[in-house]
Design goal:
The chain has two domains: about 15-205, no CATH class; about 290-405, Arc Repressor Mutant, subunit A (Orthogonal Bundle), CATH 1.10.10.10. About 60% of the residues lie in helices and about 0% in strands. The protein has 17 helices and no strands. The chain has helices spanning about 15-30, 35-40, 50-55, 60-70, 80-90, 105-110, 150-175, 185-205, 210-215, 225-240, 250-275, 290-310, 320-330, 345-350, 355-375, 380-390, 400-405.
């Protein structure tokens, strides 16, 4: 294999930057546990030199502190590894099955005896960011890696075999009464997860140019280019998970259809949004007092209606009840008073105690409320129920609003 094909990225890719912390944690666990490290180092996707240096930088005084930090007191795994293990074991691992997984020495044939696949150079990938150094590097200037069908089949076999091994461990764990993995099983799950994750990243990085090319060819002026590229990248990752290399097709054929469908869904989503919100965002309309204004207007109208009910005596109030309401709420002779009277002051006028004034007031308010509900709020059933109760038992006191609601089934 020519040296030009084996390219090492000068700058980490976006996916590489997101996983750098995971790799450092993984490399620390390898140094602490050589048994696990030997299994991972056999992977064709080895740890980067920067991650190993970051792990070895803790030798000396800082190494005990790093070993103690984040370690679980019971399982021997770091907090991050335990969280990752829980997410992996939360649901059954899916994979694309293959007869090669069940052959003798399948791991050795799929990984150790497989040809080495060239890795892509993703230093050119800056679709929505300006190069601060002033030097632009496009896809044409960067040497691309175009995989053959056989090379793609090798990568996808390795990727799906790692997920198959996770699935196999899950079945063994879930068959036990505790349904919890042992320390060895947990380390195996993490080892196979990182193997598959590195291969998945390699496949995605190799096809990043496909997303940009499809985004530039797709004419969707209403969709931002950055959003289009982001949706295409997510579709590319989903395509890696679902692609079956055993059918003999190139991955680019399957990925193009998946990316175009993702672009179409993004356009339809934005179109529905535009139908619901045809105008752009206006900060002046962010805070609206419509509800407060509507409520204040309704309260004012209701208060005016109550005043008309009392002055026109539409609630059939007695003279005593009307006198109490007019003096208590300042409605005497239809003119507002400067200050409403207290219960004691009204009692001195009509010659009763303030407790009796309160009882008369409550009875009158029930009548006014029924009239208000019937004619102003449109609840005529309450008025009919009140009239029927008065005819049935004229000597009884007027029913309360709660009793009328029960009678009408409301």
């Amino acid at each position: 294999m020519s040296p030009s094909l084996m390219m090492t990225p000068s700058t980490p890719s976006p996916l590489e930057q997101q996983r750098r912390r995971n790799r450092v944690d993984l490399s620390e666990s390898l140094l602490a546990d050589p048994a696990v490290g030997s299994g991972i180092e056999a992977s064709p996707s080895k740890l980067t030199a920067s991650a190993v240096k970051a792990a070895k930088a803790g030798d000396g005084a800082e190494k005990p502190a790093k070993a103690a930090r984040g370690k679980s007191p019971s399982g021997g795994l770091s907090t991050h590894q335990e969280e990752l293990l829980a997410s992996v074991m939360a649901q059954e691992q899916d994979f694309i099955d293959s007869p090669a997984f069940y052959e003798d020495d399948a791991e050795k044939k799929i990984y150790d005896e497989a040809p080495e696949i060239p890795k892509p150079d993703t230093s050119w990938y800056h679709p929505v960011m300006d190069d601060l150094s002033g030097r632009t590097r496009t896809i044409k200037t960067a040497q691309q890696v175009i995989l053959t069908g056989a090379q793609e089949k090798v990568l996808f076999h390795q990727f799906n075999y790692s997920r198959y091994r996770i699935w196999k461990i899950q079945q063994e764990v879930w068959a036990t009464p505790s349904r919890k993995p042992t320390l060895a099983q947990a380390k195996d799950v993490l080892r196979w997860y990182h193997k598959g994750d590195l291969i998945r990243e390699q496949i995605a990085n190799t096809n990043l140019a496909l997303v940009l090319a499809m985004a530039k060819r797709t004419r969707m002026s209403e969709v931002d280019f950055a959003d289009l590229v982001s949706e295409g990248n997510m579709a590319l990752l989903r395509a890696v998970d679902k692609f079956d290399a055993g059918r003999g097709y190139k991955f680019s054929t399957y990925a193009c259809r998946a990316i175009l469908k993702a672009f179409s869904r993004q356009g339809m989503k934005l179109s529905k949004y535009r139908q619901r919100f045809p105008t752009d965002f206006d900060p002046k309309l962010e805070k609206s007092n419509f509800l407060e204004t509507k409520r204040a207007t309704f309260e004012k109208d209701a208060a005016e209606e109550v005043k008309r009910i009392v002055m026109e005596n539409r609630a059939d109030l007695t003279d005593v009840e009307r006198t109490v309401i007019e003096h208590r709420f300042g409605l005497e002779h239809g003119q507002d008073q400067d200050k409403p009277m207290t219960l004691e002051q009204v009692g001195q006028i009509i010659g009763v105690t303030k407790e009796r004034v309160r009882q008369i007031q409550n009875k009158a308010m029930e009548k006014i409320r029924v009239e208000l509900e019937a004619n102003f709020l449109g609840n005529k059933l309450l008025k009919e129920a009140a009239e029927a109760a008065a005819v049935a038992n004229p000597d009884a006191k007027a029913p309360t609003l709660e009793e009328l609601l029960k009678l009408t089934g409301q």
